[in-house]
UniProtKB/TrEMBL annotation:
PANTHER family: GAG-PRO-LIKE PROTEIN, OS08G0508500 PROTEIN. It comes from the Eukaryota. It comes from Cephalotus follicularis. InterPro entries: Peptidase_aspartic_dom_sf. This is RVP_2 domain-containing protein.
């Protein structure tokens, strides 16, 4: 849950070095876009193309009984997922990813 809105199709990815929120997802949330901090970051995608980060924004998310303030990099890209929680989030919560299943 993110700002009292349920967010479907969130990927937890221990390979990603970013927490990514799609611009289209962020626009559906009750967030004032003035809170987006400018970013000069450029991300190299799997296909080798470079994608610009529109900015960074800190948004509280609720997973089970816990609330986490997550800094997301906002990107205007096409994806099957609405958000991606990468290593920054995994490390901040002390999670241990497992691929046993």
């Amino acid at each position: 849950m993110c700002i009292d809105h349920h967010i479907a199709r969130v990927l937890i990815d221990n390979v990603s070095s970013l927490n990514v929120m799609l611009k289209s997802t962020m626009e559906k949330l009750p967030v004032d876009q003035c809170y987006i901090m400018p970013s000069q970051m450029v991300v190299r995608a799997f296909d080798g193309s470079c994608r610009e980060v529109l900015g960074d924004i800190e948004i509280p998310i609720t997973i089970g009984p816990c609330v986490f303030n997550v800094v997301f990099q906002v990107m205007d890209i096409a994806s099957s997922y609405t958000c991606l929680l990468g290593r920054p989030w995994i490390h901040s919560v002390g999670a241990v990813p497992s691929s046993l299943h």
